[in-house]
Design goal:
The complex is a heterodimer of chains A (150) and B (89). With 150 residues, chain A is of the alpha/beta class. Helix content of chain A is 45%, strand content 15%. Chain A has six helices and four strands, in the order βαβαβαβααα. Chain A has a four-stranded parallel sheet with strand order 2-1-3-4, with helices on both faces. The longest helix of chain A has 15 residues. The N and C termini of chain A lie far apart (46 Å). By secondary structure, chain B is of the alpha+beta class. In chain B, helix 1 runs antiparallel to helix 3. Chain B is globular and about 35 Å long. The interface between A and B is medium-sized, with 22 and 22 residues.
């Protein structure tokens, strides 16, 4: 099984994983690591190294970081080992959920990262770009909230 | 290949937890299972595709299954939807 590490500053990583667990149920092979804002680069590296070692069962580790250029991402990049440890930036709930909901265990970690990148990019949409009949559906059929909503 | 018309009857429609249940149910079968709404087809084993359908309560979908276990796959997915994803409303 590919190891999946969600790596961010603050509590974001934990909350993303908690949300995905609430939606999907228990997730195997995942770990959330929320670095402390005051961690030094070396302290952060030690934490990430330990997590990568815990998660690596021989099929590699996919590190999902918050954004390119952030300290969590920069730390993750020091472990980049193409085909073994891959780093994908911009982690969000669709990414975690997609990875959780259907395994990618038959592919290598590099293929899994590319597959997830494509899925994630398609998951970001502007609602008004949707087909008109779909917008009508959203407007007229979403549950009515107490007190009314437009 | 078999198809069946279904209506989304739970109050919240195909929201995230319902979609996850659908994916898990569909994933238990070898058949390819497709949801079709307004001419748009999505893989029933892909949660992001299902969520992008934005199928609210009252939406009518066509379920299509193709494979060795297509009968039981369609029965399981139809039952899950009819049972409101076990949400109670």
């Amino acid at each position: 099984m590919i190891g999946k590490l969600i790596l961010t500053h603050g509590g974001l990583a934990r909350e993303l994983l908690a949300a995905a667990r609430t939606i999907n149920g228990e997730l195997a092979g995942f770990e959330a690591l929320a670095l402390d804002w005051n961690d030094s680069f070396e302290e952060a590296r030690l934490k990430v190294r330990a997590a990568v070692e815990r998660l690596n069962q021989g099929q590699g580790v996919l590190i999902l970081t918050d954004m390119f250029g952030s300290t969590p991402c920069n730390v993750a990049l020091t472990f980049l080992d193409p085909g073994k440890v891959e780093v994908l930036t911009g982690v969000n709930l669709p990414m975690v959920l997609r990875l959780a909901c259907q395994g990618v265990e038959d592919t290598g970690v590099a293929d899994a990262a590319r597959w997830l990148q494509a899925k994630a990019q398609r998951s970001i949409c502007m609602a008004s770009d949707m087909a008109p009949q779909r917008q009508d559906t959203l407007h007229t059929r979403l549950p009515k909230l107490p007190g009314g909503r437009g | 290949m078999i198809e069946r018309e279904v209506e989304i009857v739970n109050r919240l429609g195909l929201h995230a937890r319902a979609a996850a249940k659908l994916v898990h149910t569909a994933g238990g079968f070898r058949s390819q299972i497709t949801l079709i709404m307004d001419g748009e087809e999505v893989d029933a084993k892909s949660i992001l595709g299902i969520l992008l359908m934005a199928a609210a309560q009252g939406s009518r979908l066509t379920l299509r299954a193709e494979g060795q276990d297509e009968e039981s796959a369609l029965a399981a997915v139809t039952s899950l939807i009819a049972n409101r994803f076990d949400e109670g409303s």
